[in-house]
Amino acid sequence: MKHRHIISLLMENEAGTLSRVAGLFSARGYNIESLSVAPTEDPTLSRMTIVTNGSDAVIEQINKQLNKLIDVVAVMDLSDGEHLERELMLVKVSAAVAASEAFKRAMAVFQGRFIDTSNSTCTVELTDTCVKLDEFLQAVGRDQILETVRTGASGIARGERILKL
Amino acid sequence: MGLTEELAEELSGAEIAVRCLQEEGVEYIFGYPGGAALHIYDALFRQDKVKHILVRHEQAAVHAADGYSRSSEKVGAVLVTSGPGITNAVTGIATAYMDSIPMVIISGQVPSTMIGEDAFQEVDAIGITRPCVKHNFLIKDVKDIAPTMKKAFYLARSGRPGPVLVDIPKDISFQKTTYNYADPIHIRSYNPPGEGDINQIRKAIQLLMTAKRPMMYSGGGVILSGASAELTELAHLLGFPITNTLMGLGAYPATDKQFVGMPGMHGTYEACMAMQHCDVLIAIGARFDDRVVGKVEHFNQVPRKIIHLDIDPSSIAKRVKVDVPVVGDLKLVLKQFLAELRSTQQKPDAAELAVWWKQVNDWRFKGGGLKYNNSTEIIKPQYVIEKLYEVTGGDAFVTSDVGQHQMWAAQYYKFTKPRRWLNSGGLGTMGFGLPAAMGAQFINPGATVACVTGEGSIQMNIQELSTCKQYHLPIKVVSLNNRYLGMVRQWQEIFHGNRYSESYMDALPDFVKLTESYGHIGMRIDKPSDVEPALREAFARKNDLVFMDFRTDPTENVYPMVPGGKGLSEVILDPKMPHPEVEDL
């Protein structure tokens, strides 16, 4: 039985750390649905959010193997408890699509923001869970979209559960 | 300027790297020079504490450092140049990684200003070694060399050991800075385990005490942790049957009556059956790999409780479900087991254990103690190993290459001490044996070192006979020459309808003349009656390398055998030998 898991890592903010993590996933045949990484308030640390899927045994191995990497400082499987996740998406559509009632309705429902327009195009920004963003794309219709770019999920645990050194 | 800074010396990066090797107590570094490493070679030349051993191929440098480490528990050290220097070393590094051997490899790199420009002899050493090292470092500042070297040695030897690479660009190797090796190391993300959780240990003991069919299964981790004495004590205290994996041979004396031999693909009948049918299995520094448990679904068919002791949490529950995991340094964990057993005075049920031993001994009887169909006409490979064991008094350092000869050496040489059996168990690297024997001979001067090999494997690093001559290494090469890549031939016989695709060895050199041309002694042995006299003569030559070319039966197969994709209890016994029927579970 495969489950989706969202795993957060704190790792040394050094060249090569990302490739150690990415290399681990490809070498051991684990899936990556998305991966996002940036430095934290402590510039020596980066925080990575990985969305993956696998059986319980595979997820256990992923957590252990990540912990084993020397540059990985801390690992938290956010799926073990209540957590929040957000993903940023930018979508470019034609001006005609942007003006359509259906598109405006979707923008209202999913709380999108117009961030750029040109004579012929329009770009919007949405921040939500991965599932909600998928729903937005479905609501708009794939053939109506010129370009999509997504950051992958960022995750954080709810309440007092904190991933920090 | 402070006092310490005034006293601190200004050294070049290369000099610092060599000073670090001295501080770490490195006696020998195995390597091969080249452009990007020349400053380091120059620094080596200008000191005499660290002796450099010039091999003939970088792969051999790594295997030699590996054999040095396996036979001594010290950290191996290697020095190679950039580009082909490091790519040649990769097979050796992967070999050490798979078997968790502590090692530091220094590689020269093109100048940092030229990295990424496809410079002459440039290769991404960090990228190419990443999947087969415990960790690696690219030096970007000369100030980082000393702390990085210190980290490298610490990482290599602590926790689950492994190879660590330090890549030093040429320009950084001649920049200067103050040298200071005194700073303690702290790696915030790395805390190797010590003792095990006492509650888990109590749970494990409870399980062991209620077992009806208990079994101990120990691997290379016991040797790496230096825990052979504790393991032996625990086994004697419990009275359970015990098996050692290919990597764990010697951790428990093979001559002891509780020892049931090696498990797995070419393990004994009794070890395979006892592993399969036990109801509580305690795994100690072993990792349930495919060559040990066979088809995992078949292994899981029998309900049994598993206790797993290991320093690496990722080894636990990787292939089989584990009921009681204990993470820790095995030497400490086994001491905890012993203390807990002694203080609580718990003992296994003697009557239940006797019933189980009756079953194990029945299997032992059926297995026939690895008897083979000996001959007076043609040399049987097993016979050579039996005689090697006798002639060396069971006390040699034995390295092997990979294939049938490796399995026969593991089966017929009864290792009674740890760190005596050196083989590439994980990666299965042909060409390991001779250079590993060199490393073992350097760190154990005066000891008997034998390399069991075949005519296929030995040719993968035969150039090292030249290194052996240069450094007067009196290794005894025991080559089981059957004119086939024997293990490949065996699988082709059994699984591929006798189609021996590319497994014959044609156009073989005259190994006697070849050895003589390197300045050593060569012997060719064709008759079974000459095997023992030849071995005695060779091993009596304490100061000479002797290459023994034994012409063995090309049709001999390794048995018992658990065929690939089969379960442990589907083990096949030697069809040429009688096997009495016994009652099975």
What does this structure look like?
The complex is a heterodimer of chains A (165) and B (585). By secondary structure, chain A is of the alpha+beta class. Chain A contains 5 helices and 9 strands; from the N terminus they run βαββαββααββαββ. The radius of gyration of chain A is 18 Å and the shape is elongated. The two termini of chain A are 33 Å apart. The model of chain A has no long low-confidence stretch (mean pLDDT 96). In chain B, the strands form 4 sheets. A 6-stranded parallel β-sheet of chain B has the order 3-2-4-5-7-6, sandwiched between helices. Chain B starts with a helix and ends in a 34-residue tail after the last strand. Chain B is globular. In chain B, helix 3 (38-45) links the parallel strand 2 (28-31) and strand 3 (51-54). Chain B is an alpha/beta fold. At the A-B interface, helix 1, helix 2 and strand 4 of A face loops of B.
Sheet with the most strands, sense and barrel status of chain A: 5 strands, antiparallel
What is the topology, as strand order, of the major beta sheet of chain B? 3-2-4-5-7-6
Oligomer: heterodimer
Care to count the β-strands of chain B? 19
- Tell me the greatest interface: A-B, 21 and 19 residues
Order of H and E elements of chain A? EHEEHEEHHEEHEE
Shape of chain B: globular
Counting DSSP H or I runs of 4 or more residues, the number of helices of chain A is 5
* Largest β sheet strand count, sense and barrel closure of chain B: 6 strands, parallel
Strand content of chain B: 15-25%
Head-to-tail CA distance between termini of chain A:
33 Å
> Class by helix and strand content of chain A?
alpha+beta
Mean pLDDT of chain A: 96
Q: How big is the Rg of chain A?
A: 18 Å
Net shape of chain A: elongated
* Regions with little confidence, pLDDT below 50 for 5+ residues of chain B: none
Mean pLDDT of chain B: 96
**What's the total number of strands of chain A?**
9
- Helix proportion range of chain A: 25-40%
Instruction: Compute the separation of the termini of chain B in Å.
Output: 79 Å
Q: Please mark out the parts of chain A with pLDDT under 50 across 5 or more consecutive residues, or reply none.
A: none
